[in-house]
Structure prediction request, 392 residues.
Amino acid sequence: MTPVTTDLEDELRQLYAAVTAPPLPLRVVSVTSMPQLQRHARPRRRQTLLALAIATTAAVALVATLLATRQLTTTQLLSVRVLPAGADLSCSLPIVALSADQTRGLIVLRNGQASFQAANVPQGAYIAALHQWVDGTPRRLNDADTTYYSVNENRSTVTVTVHDEHGAHVVFTADSKTQDGPMGWFGKDIVLFEPDHHSQPAVAHVLLLDPSTGNARLVPGSINAEPSFGANGSSTGYIPGSGAIWTTFSRDDGTRSALQRYDLTTGVSTELYSTTGFIEMVGVDGGGHPIIQVGSRDIFHVNPAKRSGITTRTLLLTGAPQPTVLNEGSVGDSGVADNLSPLSLTDGDTVWMAADNGQIWRYTPDHGMQLVAKVTTSTEGAPGVAIEGPCR
Prediction:
């Protein structure tokens, strides 16, 4: 875990602990607690690595006992209810959270009802191909098969170990002062992020590691961390399926924000979108087009209990002259998305997203963005839900 990651996790924990959770819904179906991370905060006026698709924070997990009863008890920590748009769903959705409940597991959706199955590991990630949880850093998985990697980092080195049908084998070791570690899978390669601490303006380089040979090849070009329009903060990360690394820039006063795409094949950087307010990258559709959330204020750095009235727009950028509006309105109003986590999941044409306040969203081209379920915790702090795998 890098010092930046540790600082960000501490900031998130303070944020989630600052607000008391809302009362449990009347329709409660099951129970338990959850652990994990959420979005990496980016302190203003400095650049921060935001590993979107991989959870670079590993929360100290506390596995709670799953309660099979539908009656609310004093030991119940988590409840989930199905909303009308999710009544026809029949699948199990892996989730994680950074709330005080500290748990991870499956939301099981069947016949308009929901239950929760806690993970059998205190701190781990979900392998969709195996339908099981394994110990390791969340999201560091290749969802297409059973191969995944783990990372061991100390003050001097970063070590990447691949786990497959042949066992565990070290594929990469580097100086932790020059390597920020893996960001996720791109095809059968592992994406490595390497900041150039000596360049002015600040840039970062990207390498693609072939785990079968241990060779890492440099992607052309570089990622610019300091845009020309005087942004005070930036965040950079990778979302599987997008074929790109994404950087958002914003001014403290909200007068301008921009989204930049760095193509992992060509190394070309392109500014895709610019607007007033604050841009957050939250996912990609089945075609790799970005889904962003634009807030009238920097919603992530606002206490969850004080976000009411902040206007947000969730937009799909397809390259058309105007973005497609998926959701918009004032936070706190019915049907309006709260602060969305970048830890979303694209499964074919379906995109699963989750918000700090426990909203579970499902986007499809035919039906748009629908609120399908709501997670509530009984402890202090917002649920801080993030998606860990496809709903199967």
Remarks:
- The radius of gyration is 20 Å.
- Residues 1-76 have pLDDT under 50 and may be disordered.
- Helices lie at 3-17.
